Amino acid sequence: MSIGARLIERYEAGSSVVHSTDGRLKLLLTVAYVFTVTLTPVGHWIAFGLLAAPLAVAVAASRLPVLLILRRSALALPFIVVAVPLLFTKEGDALFTLPPFGWTASEEGLLAVLTILTKSWLSVVAVILLTATTPAVELLRAMRALAVPRILVATVSFMYRYLFVIAEEAQRLLRARDCRSAELEDRKCGGGVRWRAGILGHMVGSLFVRSYERGERVYAAMQARGYDGEVRFLEDRPWRLAGIVVAIALALYLVGVEIYARY
């Protein structure tokens, strides 16, 4: 296993209640949670607080480092960049105006941006909790058991397996470039931006060709061994009554929060 894969799976072998929960159950609950968060009306902060409560309990029960959750939850920040234009395009009571452009921010726009931030952050934390407490093989097995199309399961499986291989190949290219480069303290080395962009383009092209050729070789080897497009796993574990009861209780809780938020 590559170094990157070991770093990602560092927290998947824990012994907490969340770690030992059936992967199928965690996947179903995560999808239901994200779906509920997405449907929550704009600006309903009480509902968001009620949705954050079970997530906080699950994070505490998983015994994952808080810094890990916060660091990985930064993935929600790009959603804010996309949502910022709503601050100035949504009609409503004016808050302030940017003098150089004459853009006016509205209260409704600010409310929409904060809502998108909250929804994105809660959803990302839920997915982080799922991936940090469930091995990749268990997630793939859960996807297949829940009737996810086999082509999608196979694609995710190969992506996870070879993403780190491609990353290590890119690191080798960078090391080779550094070994062929000389730097002098008293003078600038290398060309301008255009020259550096050309070098980067050659490296990306080389990486693409190597990855494509590797994929062709791997696929030919798989076909020679009888691969038919199905990613096979060991037999699924039977559903546990305790897990089913917890799943039903959480599902009813999510439905209740959504009903409260809308009515």
Describe the structure.
The protein is built from 12 helices and 2 strands. It is mostly helical and 263 residues long. A hairpin with a 4-residue loop joins β1 (94-98) and β2 (103-106). α4 runs parallel beside α8 (107-133), α6 packs antiparallel against α8 (107-133) and α9 (136-145) packs antiparallel against α10. The radius of gyration is 24 Å and the shape is flat. It starts with a helix and ends with a helix. The mean pLDDT is 82.
Average pLDDT confidence is 82
Radius of gyration, whole Å: 24 Å
State the domain count: 2
Structural class: mainly alpha
Span of the ends, CA to CA? 51 Å
SSE order: HHHHHHHEEHHHHH
Number of strands: 2
The proportion of residues forming helix, as a percent range, comes to 55-70%
| Strand residue percentage | under 5%
Spatial sequence of strands, sheet with the most strands: 1-2
Largest sheet: 2 strands, antiparallel
H/I helix tally: 12
Stretches with pLDDT under 50, minimum 5 residues: none
Task: Describe the global form.
Answer: flat
